Amino acid sequence: MREKKGDHPFYPHHVIRNAMAVLGAIAALAALAGWFPAPMERVADTLSPVPPEPTAPMWLMRPVWLVDRILPSSTLTILVFAAAFLFCAFIPFIDRGQEDPSKRRFWVAVPFLLWMMFIFVATWLLPKGIFLP
Amino acid sequence: MSLATRRDRRESKGILHDFLEWVGLLGFIYGPLDRRLSVRDALEKALSRPIPHISWWGCFGGISLFLFLVQIGTGVVLMFFYVPTDPEAYHSIRYLNGTAPFGWLVRSTHHWSGNGMIFALFIHVIRVFVTGAYQRPRDLNWMVGMALFLFTLSFALTGYLLPWSQTAFWTTVFWTDMIGQIPIVGQWLLVLIRGGELVSGATLTRFYAMHVAVLPILTIVFMAIHFAIIRRLGIKEPL
Question: What structural domains and CATH numbers belong to chain A?
């Protein structure tokens, strides 16, 4: 690989930087595991046809749950999520501009960032104790 | 007898010396393995490779990999205690959490490293997106990365059911119901994922197999492809 101005050798620059990031991750893991241990919830009541008590879905599924409540049908919800994922996966074939990538990227970035904001809101700001399903 | 074999015999200083050279760290780097495989040359070439300066945001891919390794380590320990059947799953987790020495710590580390991996992966994807590193010639690697992202989410969804708790059960009911709403193939997929019409012990067994066998193999294979492409094409220079 040809060396350009501003390049650094992988060792020690990147090795040390990544090692420090990993040490930070270990510290964060130890703190979270120590202060906020994984919760031990009640055993599943599989015989009940509906949740016997208010049950919030896991954080990862809250955006899906919220979209499902907004849209008229679950089929539409799953199609929206499939379309969003396929849009993200095939972005390299949509944004192919070479002349001024930063301008083109702005228009592709808008829906992407809006989607990220929605996920953040749905994940962290939704009240607890919503009912499933 | 080839010239290389004759040279090896001449340089050999006894069986024990050779054995220690093979197993010792110095033997690995400077000893017979190095003479055959040029390990030192390969290491020097890899470590001195010039790479553009990247900010701290560039470390989140590496953090995801590290958290995946933590997941493997803690997951193997959890497998020694976990019983993947309908009545025993919850009680085995309860035993692990309350009675097994440091069981709560291993479980909590697994729990937080799983969440952290998704979080780090989100930041990694956003960073790659914002810097435009998905464009040609790295388009294939973006798609491999998206597959890895999908596998990570599948890890979360399959692993979440394993404690067989109330939230886990109803979350699984919710998202598998959603799968059932896919036009044409939905019902077929629903039965395939659940192992029947309802979320039951069969679902738990399937999710366990996916979580500890299928998804790790897929993830490791795709990670190898991901890193090989990064290695071949290099890291994209910052904007």
Answer: 10-125 (1.10.287)
Q: Is A25 on the interface with B (CB under 8 A)?
A: yes
Q: Is there a single domain that holds both residue B65 and residue B179?
A: yes
pLDDT at A54 over 80: no
- pLDDT-derived band at A103, boundaries 50, 70, 90: low
C-beta of residue B119 within 8 angstroms of C-beta of residue A69? no
Clarify whether residues B38 and B73 are in a common domain.
Answer: no
Cβ contact (<8 Å) for B136 and A41? Answer: no
Q: Are B177 and B189 in contact (CB under 8 A)?
A: no
Measure in Å the smallest separation between the Cα of A42 and chain B Cα atoms.
Answer: 6
The answer, for B169 touching chain A at a CB cutoff of 8 Å, is yes
**Residue B102 structure tokens:** 């440091």
Whether residue B238 is contained in a domain is answered as no
- CA separation for the pair B3, B61 (Å, rounded): 46
Q: Which residues contact A88 (CB under 8 A, 6 or more apart)?
A: A112, B125, B146
Q: Which long-range contacts (CB under 8 A, 24 or more apart) does A93-96 make?
A: A93/B139, A95/B132, A95/B134, A95/B135, A96/B135, A96/B136
Report d(CA B127, CA B135) in Å as an integer.
13
- Assess B102–A contact: CB distance below 8 Å, yes or no: no
Residues of A in contact with B70 (CB under 8 A): 29
CA angle B13, B15, B19 (to 5 degrees): 100
* Residues of A in Cβ contact (< 8 Å) with B179: 78
Q: How far apart are CA A115 and CA A103, in angstroms?
A: 19
Residue B126 belongs to domain spanning: 56-233
* Same-domain check for residues B41 and B101: no
Q: Does B103 touch chain A (CB under 8 A)?
A: no
Q: Give the DSSP H or E segment for B25.
A: helix B25-30
Is the CB of residue A123 less than 8 Å from the CB of residue A64?
Answer: no
Q: pLDDT averaged over chain B?
A: 86
- pTM recorded for the entire structure: 0.84
- The phi, psi pair for A9, rounded to 5°, reads -65, 150
